[in-house]
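DUF6264 family protein, Microbacterium terregens. Tokens?
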Amino acid sequence: MSDPVDRTASHGTEELRPRPHGTEELRPRPHGTEELRPRPQYGEYATPEEQRARIQQPDLTRLLDTGQDPDALHGAPAGTAVAAAVKDEAPIRRGRFVDRVATIALLVYGLVNVVTGIPGMINYESYVGTVFSLLGVDAQLSDPAAGRPWGLAAALLLAIGWLATAYLSWRSLRRGRVTWWIPLVAGIVFTFVSGILLMVPIVSDPTVWNAILDTAR
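Tokens:
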């Protein structure tokens, strides 16, 4: 088997010289420099033009592996990303505005009901008379004064319930959460509980209860 040879240029001619085993083939650098460097085992060294093109167009796979945005390296796509973010945020802002309006409307409606309902609850006799008139019941409480504490309790519950609802709704709105359901659910719950308190003296009076049952028949 013949020994590898090394080729060097001399006066436009090529001279073949034997190359020892284990040595790397050397070639001169461009531009006539005399310094020699090892020849790569596979392929060839990149030219200066190829190196500059490589620097201007970085490897996208390497950028993605390091968590960088390839589009951010170019000036134009950055504006596109900002525009897309603004476009996505627009429906969220509209949704928050609608939620805020609905929440405030429900709170105002609840406040009106509380303010107009509390005087009737405090004057429990008048409240019972109105209820009996609506039901078509011809009866009176045996002890009208016994129902007054229950009317006060119902009125106090409604007032405290509205204040608590308004506070929770305000905190939820500040955190950017969906809030309209808070005054809706709270209004149903507090109205139901206050109604039960107002009915306790009525169902506790046997005479009134029997009159209601007779009317129902």
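The two ends are 122 Å apart (CA to CA).
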